[in-house]
Every structure is written in C-alpha cells, then in structure tokens.
Write a structure and sequence with these properties.
It contains 15 helices and 9 strands. The chain has 348 residues and is an alpha/beta fold. It has a domain at 12-69 and 173-202 and 241-347: 3-Layer(aba) Sandwich (Rossmann fold). It has a 7-stranded mixed sheet with strand order 3-2-1-4-7-9-8, sandwiched between helices. Strands 5-6 form a two-stranded antiparallel sheet. β5 (226-227) and β6 (232-233) form a beta hairpin. α8 runs parallel beside α11 (246-259). The two termini are 29 Å apart.
C-alpha cells in the first residue's frame, strides 16, 4: 500500500487485537479510513468493515481493500493488469503536470500513467473492479515517485526508484464483502451502526488532500487547474478540514463522537496531535451520558520519514533541524464498562 504520513502500518496488529479483545466485533466502522490498512486487516480476521473517508483516493483504496470481494474481481483484475502493462506510453495531462511542470515522476512513467488511466476510464468498469485497477495504478506510481512520501514537494535530485519502469501489480484483495463510503465523518457515524467505531482522525495542521493531491487527481481524473511548485489541485485551498485546525479540532471530533452508534469506541491519536491525552480521555468519558470508561494503550512510534529527514524548502535545500525521532501513539478504548482486564496483554 502507498507510503502515507500517519500510516498505522506498524501499529495495525495492536489496533486489530485491541478491537477484537474489546468486543465481539462482527461489524467495525472505520470513520477515517485513509490507506485502508486497518480496514483490510480487520477484514482479514473476519470482521465486516464499513470504511469511510471524504477524500476520493482514500474512498477508492477502501473500495479495493474493504468493499471488493476477491471472488468477484480478481480474475478480471489479473487479465486487465496484464493488458494494461502492455500499453505504450501516451503523454497527456499527468505527464505535463507532474513530470514536466513539476518533477514527481520521470516522463516515461508519466506517459504510461496517462495511457493506463485513460484506458481505465474508457472501460466503464463496475465500481469495485475499477477501484482495484485504480489502486494498482496508484501503487505502481508510488513505487516510482521521487518524494519522501508526501506530495508537498519533490526531491531536488531524482530518487533512484524513479528510474524504474512503472509496472502494475494486482492488489491484495480479500474474499468477502465490506462497504466503502465517502461521507463527512459525522454523517457516516450517524448513518451506520457497528459493534466498534474506530477513529483515526487527522492530528495536526497538514491536510491529507494537500499531502496526496496527485492521488486525488489521478482517481478523480478531472484534470484540474493547479498552483504552486507542487502543482496542487486548486481545490486544496477550499476543501479544508476542521481537523487540521488546532482551535477547531476538538469540537469537530466531539461532533463525530456524539454521532457514533457503537458500544465500543477506539481512537488512535499521538502526542504531537492537537488534542492531548487528558482532553481526549475526558471527551471519551463523556460518552454514554458521562458513563464512558477509558483504557489507554501506549506505544512508542518512529516519526514519519520526512520528519526524520528534516525540513526542506521547495528547492530541496535543508532549512531546519530534526527535533526528535519518535513520538507516542495512544490507542484509546472507550465503553460503558471498564475493558482494562480484557486489554491487559496490550497494556505493557
């Protein structure tokens, strides 16, 4: 799956164990699904997952990894991946924007991305199969990009991987059906009942849409006007989330929590976030008419690679120093009953 700031790849086993220990989780609602890593892992252990994210690229990842059923899509996906891998490059919007106007990808790979994306669009595929092919293309592009993982800027010198030839691979689609939606988190929380609601909201001022604007444009294929050195979509300026605002983040999360229809709520947040541990625990204790009981699992976590490298300006010049290499991830588990005994093996 794609490189992703805030990714819970290393923490996924802990998150899955916490959710399955906390409840007999048949249905899990993932309200900020992002890369869909957590939803994919929960589906793998037999949960029915409802994955929600308001960004189109994240909804597409969830449609591939959570909603799609391997029995329905894999045969066609393998055939189409093989077919699209044989397509010659055909430079278009993607090449002009992200290879010539900017330097995220080498032109040979940009031309292949253009050709494959146009081919996907021309097929009129069923939504789940289309999502699998779009994720195959996103992940192939991710393997040959020239960034530290976010699309705020590209590297001053080409990353070695950028010279590799783009090649599609069939994503690891699982058997079974889930659901992917692209709603505002509070609306999704109110619409869907679940045994567990899992929340991994943005924790600082950095917009996921701004960090991954290329994937958003690749999935939407709306060929938008762009701005700046990074060629961001112009709607990055207007599609803002309250979760990226320190003054408004807690109120936004409070509205989502108030709408949740689940007996267990699990929230993943770290100590660099806009909401500190004491405040988060107080918010969760306020659930169920003030009867919430909270157990907090703590894990050290290596910071995102870009943070470890340091701060650079748009010309690729280092302009800041690294302050620390790790942070602390908190996994808050809330319910009407105290779940500390069930979660004891994870408390350390």
């Amino acid at each position: 799956m794609i490189k992703y700031i805030g990714s819970k790849r290393i923490l996924v086993p802990v998150i899955v164990e916490a959710i399955t220990r906390a409840a007999e989780a048949r249905v899990v609602l993932d309200l900020f699904s992002g890369t869909a890593r957590v939803g994919h892992a929960l589906k793998a252990v037999g949960c029915r997952v409802i994955a929600n994210d308001h960004n189109a690229y994240a909804e597409t990842l969830a449609r591939c990894y959570v909603e799609a059923d391997a029995e329905d899509v894999l045969d066609d996906a393998r055939r189409l991946v093989a077919e699209f891998n044989r397509l010659p490059g055909s430079p278009g919007y993607f090449t002009a924007t992200f290879c010539e106007r900017s330097r995220f990808f080498q032109p040979k790979n940009g031309a292949r991305i253009d050709a494959i994306r146009e081919a996907i669009a021309a097929r009129g595929l069923p939504p789940a199969l289309e999502a699998v092919l779009l994720v195959a293309l996103m992940e192939a592009a991710d393997r040959v990009d020239s960034t530290t993982g976010v699309q705020m800027a590209y590297l001053k010198s080409w990353a070695p991987r950028a010279a590799n030839d783009l090649e599609l691979r069939v994503p690891a689609v699982l058997p079974g059906k889930g659901l992917a939606t692209g709603l505002d988190a509070a609306l999704a929380a109110a619409r869907f009942e679940a045994d567990v609601a899992y929340l991994d909201p943005p924790y600082n001022q950095h917009s996921y849409l701004g960090n991954y604007h290329i994937w958003e444009s690749l999935v939407r294929w709306d060929k938008p006007e762009v701005y700046g050195v990074a060629c961001k979509r112009v709607d990055v300026r207007t599609r803002r989330s309250e979760f990226n605002s320190r003054p408004r983040c807690a109120a936004a999360l409070g509205r989502v929590l108030a709408a949740v229809r689940a007996p267990v709520v699990v929230v993943s947040f770290n100590d660099e976030g806009a909401i500190d541990r004491a405040t988060m625990e107080a918010m969760l204790r306020g659930l169920w008419d003030g009867r919430g009981r909270v157990t907090t699992i703590v894990r050290p976590f290596r910071r995102y690679v870009g943070a470890r490298i340091g701060i650079h300006n748009p010309r690729g010049e280092k302009v800041g120093t690294v302050s620390h290499l790790t942070n602390t991830e908190h996994l808050y588990v809330a319910s009407r009953e105290c779940l500390a005994a069930r979660l004891a093996p994870l408390l350390g």
